[in-house]
Amino acid sequence: VSPEEELKRVLPVIEELAKRSDVPISIDTTKASVARAALDAGASIVNDISALRFDFHIADAVANSSAGLVLMHSRGTPATMHHLPPVPDIIEEVKRSLRSSIAMAERRGVKRESIVIDPGIGFGKSQEQNVELIAKLDQLVAAFPDFPLLIGTSRKSFLGRLLSDAGLRAGGDGSGDAGVDNRADVGANTKTETREVVPVSERLHGSMASLTAAVLKGAHIVRVHDVKAAVETARIAEEIMRVRCD
Q1: 44-245 placed in CATH 3.40.50.11030
Q2: Whose CB among 6, 94, 185, 206 lies 3.0–4.6 Å from 159's, allowing a Cys bridge?
Q3: Catalytic residue at 108?
Q4: SS (H, E, C) the chain
């Protein structure tokens, strides 16, 4: 999508949201020109799924404002990430890549307290690596103590595959509509790419289970679709974690 097309799609929405609410607005883009225009229109967070790999001038746009910057780990490009071979150690790969992106952002003037990190569930990872990242999320939290960690697992197709597998083991038919998959969540040349998956509309419980695991492992921010269910789930998980840590 061209920068012009992105702006045509998002600017009217950002401007209207900014008029109606003081809730922070995040723009998801990998283009500096779009980031600058979105910030001028009322956005206050730039979410870069390439972590500055595609356009490091995004950091300049953020540095010249009081905006926040989300740096998300991904591999390859949207056209290639689905076919990349898995890296041998996904935890170390995410650490290495995010350290590089943080350093780039700071060199270009982004304040440390403005940066949020995201391990990029579903972007150039195999199903097994997505699960591993959630299971070992506390290692990333410990490796980046100065940065809030955001994670998005909601409705992603690795959940659809896991739920489909569970259905097969439980005696169900495991059927699902592969056509509704999140494209970015099919990656890393995994053997599970051709499996049918549970459709998006049936992934609520899987989404809440993965959210719970992420919160218990130290996630600070979660990206969700089902807001009420997610708020209630996170509230209970945080209460359990609080008592456990007392």
Answers
A1: no
A2: 206
A3: no
A4: CCHHHHHHHHHHHHHHHHHHCCCCCEEECCCHHHHHHHHHHCCCEEEECCCCCCCCHHHHHHHCCCCEEEEECCCCCCCCCCCCCCCCCHHHHHHHHHHHHHHHHHHCCCCHHHEEEECCCCCCCCHHHHHHHHHCHHHHHHHCCCCCEEEECCCCHHHHHHHHHHHHHCCCCCCCCHHHCCHHHCCCCCHHHHCCCCCHHHCHHHHHHHHHHHHHCCCCEEECCCHHHHHHHHHHHHHHHHHHHC
